[in-house]
Design a protein that fits this description.
Blueprint (H helix, E strand, L loop, with lengths): L2 E2 L2 H21 L5 E7 L3 H17 L2 E7 L5 H13 L5 E4 L9 H7 L11 H9 L7 H11 L9 E5 L6 H10 L3 E5 L6 H5 L4 E4 L17 E4 L3 E3 L2 E3 L4 H4 L5 E2 L10 H27 L1
Bound molecules: NADP nicotinamide-adenine-dinucleotide phosphate (NAP).
């Protein structure tokens, strides 16, 4: 039977680190502040914003909710973002999705200062992720790696097979895993023999959103299986992996819920802290250039 990689335990470890980072910043009179921008009243976004407010408060992070009406123009949304970019007291900006259909997601996302982009979605951050530079990285692929590494499993030299090449999970994970010296294969709907590919994995990550996609027959005995998928089936949150079957074959497996998803919020808040460091560095460089 596989070892269960406990996301809640790893999240507690990360929270402890976050608390120390926040305390250190407060010691320097910096009050970490997260601004959440919500356009409209999407129920899931409103609920997530409330959850974030609670988690931020617990970590000693200031939380601001900027809620605009659903009919706010794209220009108005961009001007609001620009105000937050210019506000030295705001260190991170989280744009809640989905946006109303009249707003161009890409243009609005690109309006966020890359140094305040706690979601790590800005093309500037994506570019640095690919080229191996210092940047803010998206939380979910980070969670996929942290849950493995912090459970004492190394990535270097391992063959990681990623199922899914979505912009939020699969694709950024490719570059993060390469930076950890894993050998990476990516599968998608065009992959000819998915089961053959997944059976080559030392570490198999599924980031698709199709319940039951990964079965025991698709897993090499002794592999580590990370399930980033999230779907709702009959009111229950479920991953991509047939957990009951795969846990009999794998050496280690993440559950859903209680796996990858447990780490994402704390990692996003750790991005806020990293953003503060990058903002400080940028200020120092600007000052040096002015001399
Ligand atoms: P996405 O953009 O929809 O990407 C899904 C990927 O899966 C696509 O690359 C697609 O291939 C591939 N795919 C679909 N069916 C497939 C199949 N039968 N065989 C192989 N590949 C297949 O999704 P995403 O935004 O990256 O998210 C992926 C999953 O992660 C979703 O379930 C999402 O809910 C979950 N998620 C979890 C968290 C968390 O906190 N745990 C956070 C964000 C997202 P093509 O490119 O060929 O279409």
């Amino acid at each position: 039977m596989a070892q269960i990689l406990d996301g809640k335990k790893v999240a507690a470890m990360l929270r402890e680190e976050l608390n120390q980072q926040v305390a250190a910043l407060k010691g320097k009179n910096i009050q970490p502040t997260l601004a959440v921008l919500l356009v409209g009243e999407d129920a899931a976004s409103v609920a997530y914003a409330r959850f974030l407010e609670k988690v931020s408060g617990n970590a000693g992070v200031n939380f601001q909710l900027h809620q605009l009406p659903a009919n706010a123009s794209e220009l108005y949304v961009k001007l609001t973002i620009e105000d937050l970019n210019q506000d030295a007291g705001v260190h991170g900006i989280l744009l809640m999705m989905p946006l109303p259909p009249h707003i161009n997601k890409q243009r609005v996302m690109e309006a966020v200062s890359p140094l305040k982009d706690v979601d790590g979605l800005h093309p500037f951050n994506r570019g640095h992720l690919i080229s191996g530079g210092v940047c803010l990285q998206p939380a979910t692929p980070m969670s996929c790696l942290e849950i493995v590494k912090r459970s004492g499993i190394s990535l270097a030299g391992k063959h990681m097979v990623i199922v899914g090449r979505g912009e939020t999970v699969g694709k950024p994970l490719v570059f993060m895993a390469l930076a950890e010296n894993a050998t990476v294969t990516v599968c998608h709907t065009g992959t000819k023999d998915l089961a053959y590919m997944t059976r080559q994995a030392d570490i198999l990550v599924s980031a698709v959103g199709k319940p039951g996609l990964i079965t025991a027959a698709m897993v090499k005995p002794g592999a580590v299986v990370v399930d980033a998928g999230i779907s709702e089936v009959a009111g229950q949150i479920t991953g991509d992996v047939d957990f009951a079957g795969v846990k009999e074959v794998a050496a280690a497996i993440t559950p859903v819920p209680g796996g990858v998803g447990s780490l994402t919020t704390v990692l996003m808040l750790k991005n806020l802290i990293k953003g503060i460091q990058l903002q400080e560095q940028a200020r120092q460089w600007e000052e040096a250039e002015e001399l």
